[in-house]
Design a protein that fits this description.
This protein has about 280 residues and is an alpha/beta fold. The protein has two domains: about 130 residues, 3-Layer(aba) Sandwich (D-Maltodextrin-Binding Protein, domain 2), CATH 3.40.190.10; about 100 residues, D-Maltodextrin-Binding Protein, domain 2 (3-Layer(aba) Sandwich), CATH 3.40.190. It contains nine helices and 14 strands. The strands form three sheets. It has a seven-stranded mixed beta sheet with strand order 1-3-2-4-13-5-14, sandwiched between helices. Strands 10-7-11-6-12 form a five-stranded mixed beta sheet. Strand 2, helix 1 and strand 3 form a beta-alpha-beta unit. The chain is globular and about 65 Å long. The two termini are about 25 Å apart.
Amino acid sequence: MPRTALPLLALTSTLTLAACGGASPDPAGTPEAAGTAAAGPDRVTVAVTPVPHADILQFVADELAPEAGLQVEIVEFTDYVQPNVALDDGSVDANYFQHRVFLADQMGQGGYDFVSLGSVSFQPMGLYSESLTDLADLAEGATVAIPNDPVNGSRGIDLLVQEGLVTLAADAPEIPTVLDIEDNPRGLQFEEVEAAQLPRSLSDVDLAAIPGNYAIGADLNPGRDALVTEAVDGTPYANQFVVRAGREDDEALRTLYSLLTGPEVRDHIEQTYDGAVVQATH
């Protein structure tokens, strides 16, 4: 199935499905009174970020979608903004890359009217270091890189809170920033970095909070390479299959979501990612 990479650019046109058919002669040579169009597969275009979302969707497109009467077109973006722009302007039918907290934040900021059909997968964020094997050895004044988007930056901060490295103010919001850190006993210095660039920053910082998809793309396994990771149970950060409001009952979209959450995809995730990705409960 086609798969297109569009770094930092939204699609400029909406893909449509056309079916064509015509009359055919009967055995006596007389045209049939009416021709019947041959129904082709329903085309669904989905915006994703590369790993693991594009790979998981490619498995569905190749192995499961044809039998279900779907043709899946995959459009890759390398950032967290353009997939929602593309969905909003109708360039794609759905996207699969973001968790509910990020989705809610983006809908508030962008005025988007989207609906999640449900969770698909989860990649835990982890704290990574090239120089440390134990967080207890983190030096005073160490530099910590976190994602520069507010929601994923807050996940990095929450991991530091979880490990007792910083404490948030009592009135900190649900999505805290470094300004909400009340107690920082080691005097940690924070650098906010675009999430996709965080793996490359590891040689320049002491510690980095890297979202799971970008860790996997850099051959980092949360279970093997991270000093600590987010918990899986009860996570609000499972990635969603998102559509525009009004299309949540679209049969083709619901069929694709059902395939993405089925046992074949669960087995593919388990065999491919060795615990770095898990199929979400939904």
